[in-house]
Amino acid sequence: MMASKKYIKLAQVSMQNVIAYRFTYFISLLGSLIFVIAMFYLWQAIFDQREQLSGFTWEQMKAYIFITYLTNSLISWYSETSISRKIIKGDVAMDLLKPLDFQKARIAETAGASLMEGCIAAIMIAALLLSTKSLVMPDSLQSGVLFILSLALSVFIKFGIIYLASLFCFWTANGIGVAWMRAALTNFFSGALIPFAFFPEWLAGISRLLPFQGIVHIPASIYLGKAIGLEAWGQIGIQIFWGIVLWTLGKWLWVWAVRQVTINGG
Fold first, then answer.
1. Could you give the CA distance from residue 38 to residue 35 in angstroms, rounded to a whole number?
2. What is the residue-wise DSSP string for 72-117?
3. What is the pLDDT of residues 103-141, one digit of tens each?
4. Cα–Cα dist 99/250, whole Å
5. Residues of the chain by 3-state class (helix, strand, coil), percent to 5
6. In the 8-state DSSP scheme, what is residue 210?
7. Are 132 and 62 in contact (CB under 8 A)?
8. CB of 193 within 8 A of CB of 69?
9. In degrees to the nearest 10, what's the CA dihedral of 185, 191, 194, 197?
């Protein structure tokens, strides 16, 4: 119980940091916003004079683009690179002395920051959608609830991937390179750049075998009603499966990395 309070406190501090370092956060948010606006006009040109493409109407595609923006905004660049910064600067040595599990402490910080960052991003998305007069809502209350659950799991999966990528900074000082590589893989295989429906069948098949689909593809499919009922629950089950796998891999890699540091550091 006492340990839980420490993690909750970390989450609260992380929320306060988003406000304290709001300029850094808004620069990150602005970068994502420029990206999504570029995607919006690109897809608008593609859908010009077409009612439907690969099962998407233009209204659905607009919602898909903004769901992508929301999922990408839930963990900002500043929050993402905080783990790699700790490792590269050596601050992780102080964390080893604290009576806290490193992985749980980082997910607590991420959850706190994501809650704040997600609320701000959601407000901006609602304003953008209302300005374009095209607010596509889930078909039912159940789809809406499942979407929120799926969105929370997408944060957990994204954290797992970021955490694993950040731990590679124990072996390289190029944290930015690691983060860019992670972002490129995640954006492509999650469907953030192009929905799976536009992929060749073989590439869509490969993407559905990877954990990245749980970040954008699955929440968007549930929101747009492309996965309903048992299929939606099955998709959420896939997210839970990958969340557990990534968490376990992160725990193993952390133990291995710390063992290497201990051996080399004496």
1. 5
2. HHSS-HHHHHHHHHHHHHTTHHHHHHSSS-HHHHHHHHHHHHHHHH
3. 888 888 888 877 777 777 777 777 776 666 666 778 788
4. 19
5. 80, 0, 20
6. S
7. yes
8. no
9. 130
